[in-house]
Amino acid sequence: EINKILIEWEQGNKDEIVHLKELESFRKEFLGNVSHELKTPIFTIQGYIHTLIDGGIEDQEINMLYLQKAGKSIDRLISIVDDLESISKLEAGELILENRTFDIHELVLDVMESLELKAKENNITLSLKEKETGKVYVYADKDRIRQVLVNLLVNSIKYGKRGGATEVDIDQHDDDVVIEVKDNG
Questions:
Q1: Alpha helix (H) residue ranges in the chain
Q2: Residue 80's CB: how many other CB atoms inside 10 A?
Q3: Residue 139 phi, psi dihedral angles, 5° rounding
Q4: What is the pLDDT of residues 141-175, one digit of tens each?
């Protein structure tokens, strides 16, 4: 009996150590990805500002264009920091979800519409794989789901193949809803 308990305890500890190693690996990969995501807008802003300092400020066409592009990069930085803050709150158990019932199909269409111009600028076609039922109700935090959808679609647009396509598919299986974002990039 004691031997059995010791073997179970040992196995439980092994499983926990494997789990902790996986979490550490995930954390390292995550930090590498965050570092990469932060570098892109920072270096972009830096390039625009140095160009303006080096004389571009005198050219009316260049200065406004570069200031607008720097502004977009700052917006991207703010979005990344907001995401990091949400993750931190989630891990600390401080993130309060405001769940409610809403139509996920309608939310997906709304997010796609809001990103349509960005997709056209990158020559990416956005589409929703239509099902026979238009409405799919879920109980979740609508703002957080919106945030996830925006991140997935923006990444697909940003890193997708030019002239490519991004398709969103909503599948309902009993009480579960699965949303897939597929691209050919």
A1: 2-53, 60-92, 104-114, 116-121, 142-159
A2: 16
A3: -115, 105
A4: 998 899 889 888 988 888 888 888 999 998 888 88
